[in-house]
Each structure stands twice: as C-alpha cells, then as structure tokens.
Design a protein that fits this description.
- The chain is about 40% helix and about 20% strand.
- With about 500 residues, the chain is of the alpha/beta class.
- It folds into two domains: about 170 residues, Rossmann fold (3-Layer(aba) Sandwich); about 325 residues, no CATH class.
- The protein has a six-stranded antiparallel barrel with strand order 11-12-17-16-15-18. It has a five-stranded parallel sheet with strand order 2-1-3-4-5, with helices on both faces. A four-stranded parallel sheet has the order 7-6-9-10, with helices on both faces.
- Helix 1 links the parallel strand 1 and strand 2.
- Helix 6 packs across helix 12.
- The longest helix is centred in the middle third of the chain and has 26 residues.
- It is elongated, with a radius of gyration of 26 Å.
- It starts with 7 loop residues before the first strand and ends with a helix.
- The mean pLDDT is about 95.
- It binds manganese (II) ion.
- The site of manganese (II) ion (MN) has 5 residues, from loops.
Length: about 500
C-alpha cells in the first residue's frame, strides 16, 4: 500500500456545448483515456479521478464546492479541451479552496496535416482554450501551478507528480498538531514567531504541552516495556560502548527507551505528529534526589527515531522547523535517500570546497545515514541535565541535497531553500554525534551570504530526494513568499529579489 493511497486528485475538463453533444462525448472519452494513462504511468503517486466535463458556470461551481467538501481530494487539475469561456469559471474559482494545477496539453500530439479539418479543430482547442482559462486565473490572482507539455511525456508527468506530493504535504499540514514540550529557548529570535498567523497561512496548529504531564507518562512506562524496545535497538543499530562503561551504557539506553515510549504515548493520545523539546526544561525534579523519576538525559535518541518515522521535530522549541520537517517527510514518502532536521554547526574553510558541518548535539535523523548507525552513550554537558546521554552516531550520504526553512518576518512568512552539495567528512573521534558536511551552492561565500541576507535559520529541514520545485509549489499553494538559493544565485540579483519582495508583499497585504 502506498502512503498516498487514500488521497485523490480531481481532474476537471473544461468544455462547452457550442460544438454539440457529440463533441462533448468525444471530449469525455479523450479525458478518460488521458486520466487512465496518467494513473497507469506509475509516476504520479496520487490517484487522479476524472470528474467529467464542466460546461457551464453552474457545473464548474458545483464541482469546485464538492472538491472543497471531499476530505480525500487534495487538489484539482483543470484542462480546457475545447474553448471554455472563462467567465463561466469565475464563481467556481472564487469558491475553490483546494490547490489548483492548470494542465496545458492537448489530446492529439501532432497535427494530422492531410486530414486536419474543422471537426478536428473543434476537438483540439486547448491551444486557445487554456489561454483563456489562464487569463481568468491571472485576472483573479488565483494561485496555481501551470504545467505545459504533452500528457504522455514522463518529464511532464513528473511535474504533476511533484505537485501531487506537495498537495499531500499541504493536506497533511492542515491536520498537524505540533506539541512544544516546554517553550522555545529564551532570547532566541529565529525560533519565535506568530503561531496564530502560522496556522492561518500554513495550517499547522502549535500547542504548548507541560513537561510535568509528559513525566506522568514517563513514570508509567514499565521496565519490561523498556527492555523490549532496547532489544529492538540492538537489532537496528551497532552497540558501541566507550568511556561510560557497560553498566552506565545500558542504564542510559534503558532510560532513553523509556523516554521514547513516553513521548510516543503522549503524541498518540494528543493526536500530534510533530513536537519540540527544550534542553533546559526536562522536568524540574532534582536528579540527585534518591526518589528522582524523570528524564535523566535529553531525549535525543527518541527524537532521532521518531523523525525517521515522519514525526516532525525541532530542537530548542523550534516549532516552525518541526512542522516543516513533518511536511518534508510526508512529501517524500517512498523516496530512497532520506531527510532530517539539521543545524549549521561549524565551518570548514577550504578554498572552493569551503563547507559547513551539519549536526546537532543529538537530534539528527538516521534516514540520512550512509550506513548502520552506532548506538553510543557519551557525556553531554549542556542544558539542565549534564549527563551521559544515549544517541545514534553516523555520517551521512554524499550527493546533492536541499535545505529549507520558514521564517517569520513580522508581516509575512518567508520560505527559503538552498541547494547544497554533501561531501565526505573526515572522522571526528572526539565529537560523537551524527553529522553531514555540505558546500552551500553556488559557493560557501555566495550561498551562506544569501541565506543570511534572507534571514534564514540555523536549523533546517534537509532532503536528498526533493528539488526546489517542491518548495516552490508548496509556497505557491500557501500564498507565502519563496526565495531560492542555487547554482545560479548571484548576490546582487538575490538582494534585488529581497527588495522587490518587500514591496510586493507590502502591497499584496494592503490589497487583501
Ligand atoms: Mn539547535
């Protein structure tokens, strides 16, 4: 079963009755064949459902309202087989609250030069029908993705596939509840922001959850339950015992398993699919009290493992990155190379290969690991618990990737993506954390500079599998600002884009 099996994309063919009933019957047949072909292609992961031709304003409005009310429907594809006078789309487009893709294609591939006649013309009018439709979308400022090309071409279908995956992410975001175990870290600007506006614009609901209530769950986890989970760890990871010694190692791993079970139970009971932690807030009990029951270490191992299952995570109360990571994981389900929460850790100046080490004190997702992670326990001297702490240690795959973040600029949210090249790191025997090493594109100097000018975060949601086209579609659907940093970026053009956007969004807000 595919992760997207329960979802649908609706296909609506625009036509009109001017050419007679026979023409509409042919249009209907062509549409069915095209939809079946797209579904059979194996490229588009979400099932496309043909909803018939729309031949009048009433029919358009009815199908758009039906789409709004159908939970399974995550987006609409429109295609104007014949000329479909666009004033008949006004009320339907006003009503539509689902993502829209306008597909500019044609049933017939090549002009049949010897046979072409008026009957052929009546049935192959998307050349002007789609232009008319495009005009009304632009006139009405309707957000949409426009895909142009022949419907049997794999690269054209791939553009629809990207959008379909993004629609699944957007639909999921609408249902995300992110729990903050503790608040975001004091004094940090970039992890703060307007959670009300965040939900209005992006859909995610972010709640505070008391650490004391999490501790109530923790206290109820039995040793037998923890032992069973530790047995699972032994199967999935390489056990590596270092300076902590065997006794402390297993004690810490056992307690880390308890923390994972407690977190899982809270998330399940609260219907949450994302969470944040704060290393300064792990329950207020004194760990040296002989009766202490609670988190004896930062629950980093749990965060690593939950991320691998698609639970959004942000460290230090970073709810925006936690939510974005959740969406990234949803969008790229079934893809091979993985995604993770990451942090810009430390720089490595090396000429044109200058890079930035990506890590965190613990919480990196093992989906990006190059080989089997090692389960290790080491001292961690940060936060309220300065303790021996369990974590998965690994290095990450090399290759092309993209990092993304969303920041609150006060008057709007800005989504930023940046292409990066992950390269081979050197061993770090005294820094036992999971990590990746990347060169920001186009170079460290331009790439890191652009990220800073855009106001980017030091945390990001990273993927090897998706491209900036995904983030572009995501921002378009949500109506938020999107800026990209890639191999073509120049500092001068990027600065100008930021200035232009400043004006655009000021006016855009005033228009609404
Ligand atoms: Mn951090």
């Amino acid at each position: 079963m595919s992760a997207f099996d329960k979802l649908e994309i609706w296909w609506i063919t625009g036509a009109q009755l001017l050419y007679g009933g026979d023409a509409v019957v042919s249009v209907d047949g062509h549409s069915k064949e095209m939809v079946e072909n797209l579904n059979r292609s194996g490229i588009i992961p979400v099932k496309i459902v043909y909803k018939g031709t729309a031949n009048s304003s009433q029919e358009v409005e009815a199908v758009m309202k039906a789409a709004n009310n159908e939970e399974k429907c995550i987006g609409i594809i429109t295609w104007m087989h014949t000329f479909s006078p666009a004033k008949m789309w006004i009320k339907g487009l006003q009503a539509l609250h689902k993502p829209l893709l306008h597909f500019h294609t044609q049933y017939n591939a090549e002009i049949p030069w010897n046979e072409i006649d008026m009957d052929f013309m009546n049935l192959n009018q998307s050349a002007h029908g789609d232009i008319e439709f495009g005009h009304i979308c632009t006139r009405m400022r309707v957000a949409r993705k426009v895909v142009c090309g022949y419907w049997k071409n794999a690269d054209v279908q791939q553009k629809i596939a990207v959008w379909a995956r993004v629609c699944a992410g957007v639909a999921d975001a609408h249902n995300v509840r992110c729990l903050m175990f503790g608040m975001n870290m004091n004094n940090v600007a970039v992890t703060d922001g307007d959670r009300v506006e965040f939900e209005q614009r992006l859909g995610y609901h972010v709640d505070y959850y008391p650490v004391s209530s999490l501790m109530d769950y923790f206290k109820k986890v039995t040793d037998a339950e923890a032992d069973a989970l530790v047995a699972q760890y032994k199967k999935e990871y390489t056990v590596k015992i270092d300076e902590s010694g065997e006794k402390v190692y297993w004690e810490k791993v056992h307690n880390a398993a308890k923390a994972e079970i407690a977190l899982r139970r809270v998330l399940k009971d609260e219907g949450a699919t994302a969470f944040t932690t704060n290393f300064d807030d792990l329950g207020d009990a004194d760990i040296n009290d002989p009766n202490f029951v609670g988190f004896d270490q930062i629950p980093g191992l749990a965060s690593q493992r939950l991320m691998a299952e698609g639970i959004g995570f942000g460290a230090e109360g970073d709810w925006k990155t936690a939510c974005l990571y959740r969406t990234l994981w949803v969008m790229q389900q079934g893809m091979p190379t993985g995604c993770s929460f990451l942090e810009d850790y430390t720089l490595n100046f090396a000429g044109d290969r200058s890079s930035c080490l990506q890590s965190h004190m613990l919480e990196i997702c093992p989906l990006i690991a190059v080989d089997k992670p090692k389960l290790e326990v080491h001292f961690l001297g940060i936060g309220i618990r300065k303790q021996q702490t369990a974590r998965l240690v690994f290095t990450s795959k090399v290759g092309h990737g993209i990092k993304a973040t969303v920041v609150d600029l006060g008057n709007r949210f800005r989504l930023i993506s940046q292409e990066v090249e992950c390269i081979e790191p050197k061993p770090m025997p005294k820094l036992p954390v999971a990590s990746a090493l990347w060169v920001p594109q186009p170079t460290f100097e331009i790439g890191a500079g652009a990220w800073i000018l855009a106001g980017g975060t030091h945390h990001s949601a990273f993927s090897y599998d998706i491209t900036e086209e995904y983030w572009e579609d995501f921002a378009e659907i949500l109506g938020i600002e999107y800026v990209r940093i890639n191999k073509q970026t120049t500092t001068a053009d990027f600065k100008q884009t930021l200035r232009n956007n400043e004006v655009y969004y000021m006016l855009n807000k005033a228009l609404k």
